[in-house]
Specification:
The complex is a heterodimer of chains A (about 270) and B (about 300). With about 270 residues, chain A is an all-alpha fold. Helices cover about 75% and strands about 0% of the residues of chain A. Chain A contains 11 helices and no strands. Chain B has 15 helices and no strands. Chain B is globular. The two termini of chain B are about 30 Å apart. Classes of the chains: A mainly alpha (about 270), B mainly alpha (about 300).
Chain lengths: ~270, ~300
């Protein structure tokens, strides 16, 4: 498309502005996390700057517990939702079958659903089943919400799947299992990897679903919320920054993996 | 698909012979998960809504008393607040995101993926942490207030706890859900069509109204729908940024489950709320074809 230089500059300026406003809260949290005072006020003198709260947060056994719970939920959720998402992506994008169109519509339903209500519904359901809620029930709830997302991500890859490769393998006598292992999984691997990252990240940051379903265990976002609503505490911004930092780190890893795997599949792709 | 090879063992051959079986089989783990983790809990909620007030058991005689309570009290106010805030959020986000999405899809090159990653990162940070950033920014002697006071000599009280701040919070939290569908939508607009229109003397506004907007409609629809549904169910924005200024339907529901310990009433409220959102979603989903949008390869 032909764009004049002023148009491009205008759009760049606008995008910059949006990003600036978008990252303003993160900036605020970082500023607050470095303030020595018990009650934050801005601006503060440079001798009031400290990393004490970070040290406190990293040494706090309580914070360790919450990080542990969050990580446990995230890893179980990732494994479950990518496994389920792999098969449902094939049903979504690859195979032709009678219920497919209905399936495609229904897959998205949990995404369009308010999370707090979903969390409460599952709380009642577990109560009805006489299950005591704990971190693993939260993992089930996260999977219910995240499996549709992994399905969609892997589906995008599955749409580009070259069916003739699977058929060629079958004509040469490969079993279903062999085809799955040697052809389908490797070809969908980039999608599966990014789905895994998405699942971990979304579970890591989720609050609304965890709130009602972790029972006696408590995930990191829940702890932060409880501290936030019960008045200002200087360690909260520091933990928040650590949480954001972990997310950014994971995104960079995701970015690197996606780049690496697309480059690899581009150089080794049989059909091009 | 249909020509089965005789070499494969019998179990696999069954999969070849019955058309569509493999598809249904692949869908089954997901279907089971949804049945157990989505459909059953929702039925449980609906059923619980008919139980007498303040009970925790599902085995009482069904009654309509909760619905009577809902209609006799002021719950409709919080429903209206939720719907209104959500609608305003959708409109503001459409205005903010369309130019950005247009630039990302059509003008920027490397910068587009940078913006994508910069915005997407926020999805992975719990929304209450991000809202807390605004609290620090807007509280009395916070980052904004302190700056105004020190450099401009303006005394400000806390800028929090009002309706514009709640809307700001919602716009902020749900921006990615509008932006990304819009980018996909704008990518679907073929450049040639736009150029042809310009060549035929269409004005910029005409091109936007007759070409850009209609051709990127699937993205606009998905984005608006996602944002609407998510923000109707929003709870943290009004709580963290809004103080007690506005009570949304989601926080009404939550307090029935927590402070009031009245699960049946909370369930009845949820049921109404679910019915409302389902109607909106189905109405909107029936109007366009999702596969068209997703099945299309991204124009790279």
């Amino acid at each position: 498309m032909i764009v004049t230089r002023t148009q491009k500059a205008g759009f760049s300026l606008y995008a910059g502005l949006v990003l600036l406003v978008f990252y303003f809260p993160v900036f605020c949290i970082i500023v607050a996390s470095l303030s020595k005072k018990r009650f934050f006020s801005f601006p503060y003198a440079s001798e009031d700057m400290t990393f004490k709260w970070y040290a406190d947060a990293l040494n706090s056994p309580q914070v360790h517990d919450f990080v542990g719970v969050s990580l446990r939920i995230a890893s179980v959720t990732a494994v479950a939702s990518v496994t389920i998402g792999f098969f449902s992506a094939l049903a979504y994008a690859r195979y032709r079958w009678r219920g497919r169109q209905t399936f495609q519509r229904l897959v998205l339903l949990p995404l369009f659903f308010p999370q707090s209500v979903l969390g409460l519904a599952l709380l009642m359901w577990f109560n009805f089943l006489d299950v005591t809620t704990a971190w693993w029930t939260a993992a089930i709830v996260h999977t219910v919400w995240i499996a549709p997302i992994t399905t969609l991500i892997i589906s995008i890859q599955a749409y580009g799947l070259d069916e003739s490769l699977e058929e060629a393998a079958r004509d040469m006598g490969a079993t279903r299992w062999q085809i799955l292992r040697k052809i389908t999984i490797p070809l969908l691997l980039p999608g599966m990897i990014s789905a895994t990252c998405f699942a971990v990240l979304l579970s890591w940051g989720n609050f609304a679903l965890s709130l009602f379903t972790t029972g006696a265990d408590s995930a990191l976002p829940e702890w932060l919320y409880a501290r936030m609503t019960s008045g200002y505490q200087p360690m909260v911004p520091a933990v928040g920054v650590i949480n954001v930092g972990v997310a950014i780190l994971l995104v960079i890893v995701l970015f690197a993996i996606v780049r690496w795997s697309t480059r690899k599949s581009r150089t080794s792709a049989p059909s091009h | 698909m249909s020509d089965a090879s005789p070499v494969t063992p019998s179990k696999a051959r069954l999969l070849e012979r019955v058309p569509g079986l493999i598809g249904a089989l692949s869908a089954s783990p997901f279907a089971l998960l949804m049945l157990f983790g989505f459909v059953a809990p929702l039925l449980c909620v609906v059923w619980f809504g008919f139980m007498p007030s303040k009970t925790f058991s599902l085995l009482q005689t069904p009654t309509l008393e909760n619905y009577a309570t809902i209609f006799n009290q002021t719950y409709f106010k919080s429903i209206l607040w939720s719907l209104g805030l959500a609608a305003v959020t959708v409109v503001i986000l459409l205005v903010i995101c369309f130019p950005l999405a247009f630039a990302m899809a059509k003008i920027f090159k490397g910068a587009a993926s940078f913006i994508t990653y910069a915005i997407a990162t926020s999805l992975f940070v719990s929304e209450n942490i991000r809202l807390f950033g605004w609290v620090i920014g807007f509280m009395k002697r916070g980052v904004v207030g302190g700056t105004l006071e020190t450099w401009f000599g303006l005394q400000t009280d806390s800028l929090l706890y009002n309706i514009p701040v709640i809307i700001l919070g919602m716009v902020y939290v749900y921006l990615p859900f509008m932006l990304f569908p819009l980018v996909l939508g704008v990518k679907m607009v073929p450049d040639q069509v736009r150029e042809a229109a310009f060549d035929l003397g269409a004005s910029r506004w005409q091109v936007f109204k007759k070409i850009d907007l209609p051709l990127s409609m699937p993205g606009v629809m998905i984005g608006s729908l996602l944002v609407f549904v998510l923000s109707v169910g929003a709870i943290s924005e009004a709580k963290i940024l809004g103080g007690q200024k506005v009570v949304t339907i989601a926080s009404d529901i939550e307090s029935e489950f927590t402070y009031a310990q009245n699960w049946p009433l909370g369930s009845a409220l949820s049921t109404m709320f679910i019915a409302l959102t389902t109607v909106v979603v189905f109405f909107a989903l029936s109007r366009f074809d999702l596969e068209k949008l997703l099945g299309k390869k991204p124009a790279e």
